[in-house]
Amino acid sequence: MNIIVCIKQVPDAKDVRLDPETNTLAREGVQSIMNPYDQHALEEAVSLREQLGGKVTVLTMGPPQAEEILKQAISCGADKGVLVSDRAFAGADTWATSYTLAKAVEKIGDFDLILCGKQAIDGDTAQVGPGLAIRLDIPFVTCIQNIREASESELVMERMMDDGYDVVAVSCPVLLTVVKDLNTPRVPSLKGKMKAKKAEFTVLSAEDIGADAACIGLAGSPTQVVDVFPPKPRGGRAILNGSMEEQIEQLVEKLAVYL
Amino acid sequence: MDYFLSEEQHMIVEIAQQLTDERIIPNRAELDEKDEFPREILKSMAQADLFGVPIPEEYGGFGGGCLDIVLALEQLGRGCIGIGTAFAASALGVYPIIIAGSEELKKKYLPPVAEGKYFAAFGLTEANAGSDASGIQTTAVLDGDEWVLNGTKQWITNGGEAEIYTVIAITDKSKGARGASIFVVEAGDPGFTCGPKEKKMGIRASSTTELIFKDCRIPQDRLVGRKGTGFITVMKTLDSSRPGIAALGLGIGQACVDEAAAYAKQRVQFGKPIISFQAIQHILADMAIQLEASRALVYAAAKHIDAHPKDMSKVSSMCKVMATDMAMKVSVDAVQVMGGYGYMREYPVEKMMRDAKILQIYEGTNQVQRNVIGQELNKEYSRK
Ligand SMILES: Cc1cc2nc3c(=O)[nH]c(=O)nc-3n(C[C@H](O)[C@H](O)[C@H](O)COP(=O)(O)OP(=O)(O)OC[C@H]3O[C@@H](n4cnc5c(N)ncnc54)[C@H](O)[C@@H]3O)c2cc1C
């Protein structure tokens, strides 16, 4: 089974702060990591390959530094990495990103399955996976928490719902987005780290994938961010103590202020 | 301090560190509480290729040396030396095959160990043969083309969990120390069973059992090395494995310094964090001094051993004594710095203190190590 895993480099959530002046994410000095959901997608791809054979290609769109997460993916068992990188891609929203990734997937070709994390922890949109499937005209199933059966022609899996899960059977090729319950991502192996050290990645530009300049980057993005701001802090809380009578008295006193 | 490790050694450290932080530390208290063998964690260590580190490259491993194993064990020891012991004892179980085994034995047993499919154990100790290993009574007699083993090994780490056991047995009583040989016994061999798990003070995630041989029949080619060379191979095995036990001590020492210093910074008494009291600072300073001095000796000893010199025993014993005595002392100090909280199971240092004790006992007690060092000195100075 040939699998493409879409991964994204994101700022480490443990480190995230807002710049109080500009109200945008302060990226300075913030560590970058592979989007946590994508780590679960990668793990599933590698274990499916261990069962069924084939190869795992990781795909990321990002600046040249995004090679870091391709290396990490190789050390965790991926076979090949592709970086889609071009200044022209800068400022892409989910619409332009899914277009760009679709072009890159067409360039890579030959796949039975595409795996994505449910969402990226920086934008939290959960739109790129489904958007990519639509562009490629293949079916997609979101929020996969377990794959019960897998072959090159069909997958049977569990889709997480608010009140339990659905069991879904889909024929390949298909795109899945995954949640963290799916598996526990492995720690990089020594062989993997050595391979990653020497790994070279295919770098694809806008021209390489034959992208239409009007559909990529800021120009291809219908979403424009008008303002970014932290939500107003909520009002304080008070816990009342004492007997019921005393508490009622206190409450009346507090509410009286607003009369 | 920078010990100028190679790039590959840094990789080993990073992998063992990540396993320790993500898999071992969150689970260690429960494994200890339940006396539970860490199957899943060992599986993830195998997946990360750690079991391949001591195995030669031609048998699917990394051909790592003593320092490579030391670096891995130091990290694992920072998390839990019960789990570290399970890993170290498996390496100990395969060293005799690496050191003295035939090509056939190596081909058969080393690759599955490197891949983490087989787990190993080392069986020397018996009820009446602890420090004095020459007192072993387990026998192996050749009957046709099979060896027949009889006897009982005691306190064998990974008993009941391992797939392969290297076992030392007497093959010729009349020859004394030259009358012992080593055999590979597989779980499931007829006449071989393991006793129930011992209940221990510490390292409770590791399994310790008897190995019971009752007319246990194994093929002739399971003999490791030549007949009668058992104790020589055992001594070589222990000389190269002891720095690994020292490394577990470094791990505990580091964890104790980390826990005690972090706690002392946030615990406020008499209106100040207790780390501002000189009495506490001095305890922490002594802990850090002993830890760093031990680390320097353990790494230096491991590098010395990696150069395959003839005189390994003394330095190997020296680093084991120093780092494990340090671990015991520093873990007691960490509990002291943390007061009553240190004594409670909610905090990790009480477990570290219980665990540390074993390091002074197994793979040769620290008294026996001092004997070795003393005897070597005696030899050296009678030559001068
Ligand atoms: C948890 C655990 C795991 C173990 N795992 C293994 C294993 O995997 N494989 C294996 O083969 N063994 C294993 N052992 C056995 C271990 O190596 C022995 O316990 C150890 O060698 C000491 O032997 P002993 O306990 O019989 O003590 P003894 O030899 O009876 O010693 C008792 C005391 O006398 C001292 N002493 C003895 N002789 C001398 C001397 N000549 N000079 C000065 N002092 C002396 C000792 O230092 C000690 O303080 C394990 C033990 C434990 C507790």
What does this structure look like?
The complex is a heterodimer of chains A (259) and B (384). Helix content of chain A is 28%, strand content 24%. A nine-stranded mixed β-sheet of chain A has the order 9-8-7-10-6-1-4-5-11, sandwiched between helices. Chain A has one domain: Rossmann fold (3-Layer(aba) Sandwich). The relative contact order of chain A is 0.18. Chain A is built from six helices and eleven strands. With 259 residues, chain A is α/β, with parallel strands linked by helices. Chain B is of the alpha+beta class and 384 residues long. Chain B has three domains: 7-119, Butyryl-Coa Dehydrogenase, subunit A, domain 1 (Orthogonal Bundle), CATH 1.10.540.10; 121-228, Butyryl-CoA Dehydrogenase, subunit A, domain 2, CATH 2.40.110.10; 231-383, Up-down Bundle (Butyryl-CoA Dehydrogenase, subunit A, domain 3), CATH 1.20.140.10. Chain B has eleven helices and ten strands. Chain B has helices spanning 7-24, 28-34, 39-47, 66-79, 81-100, 103-114, 230-266, 278-306, 313-343, 349-359, 366-383, and strands at 120-123, 139-143, 146-157, 164-170, 180-186, 192-194, 208-219, 223-224, 268-269, 272-273. A four-stranded mixed β-sheet of chain B has the order 1-4-5-8. In chain B, strands 2-3-7-6 form a four-stranded antiparallel β-sheet, with helices on one face. In chain B, strands 9-10 form a two-stranded antiparallel ribbon. The longest helix of chain B is centred in the middle third of the chain and has 37 residues, at 230-266. Chain B is globular and about 80 Å long. Chain B starts with 6 loop residues before the first helix and ends with a helix. The model of chain B has no long low-confidence stretch (mean pLDDT 97). Chains A and B meet through helix 5 of A and helix 1 of B. The complex binds flavin-adenine dinucleotide. Flavin-adenine dinucleotide (FAD) binds next to strand 1, strand 3 and helix 11 of chain B.
